[in-house]
């Protein structure tokens, strides 16, 4: 099988800049430890977004193991129950106190 004219018309690579890479579906976070194809896709998307000057957020991070996996894949932002459950508005004050970031880039 061959993909003729890939990168043109509906698959135009110029569209990549306009796609929102802000979040990657939770199924990739959940399954990338057991599916090498998901891990490859995640690494590629994160790398592409980074090179385009965009950020990506890992959705539904629920464990320290998942947090370590997303760090290794290159993510710099994450959200999910690992960090905290949804809270009523009047109980959100503690989130605005200064603290150390959880995802720190190291050289």
Task: Provide an overview of this structure.
The protein is mainly alpha-helical. The protein has helices at 26-31, 36-51, 64-73; strands at 23-24, 57-58, 77-78.
List keywords for this structure.
three-stranded parallel beta sheet; mainly alpha; 107 residues; single chain
Task: Give the topology, please.
Elements: E1 23-24, H1 26-31, H2 36-51, E2 57-58, H3 64-73, E3 77-78
Helical content band? 25-40%
Could you say which structural class the secondary elements and strand pairing correspond to?
mainly alpha
Termini Cα gap:
42 Å
Strand content: 5-15%
DSSP strand count: 3
The geometry reads as globular
Order of helices and strands: EHHEHE
- What's the rounded overall pLDDT mean? 79
Please give the count of helices: 3
Biggest beta-sheet profile: 3 strands, parallel
**Gyration radius, in Å:** 17 Å
Residue runs with pLDDT of under 50 for 5 or more positions: none
For the largest beta sheet, what order do the strands appear in spatially? 1-2-3
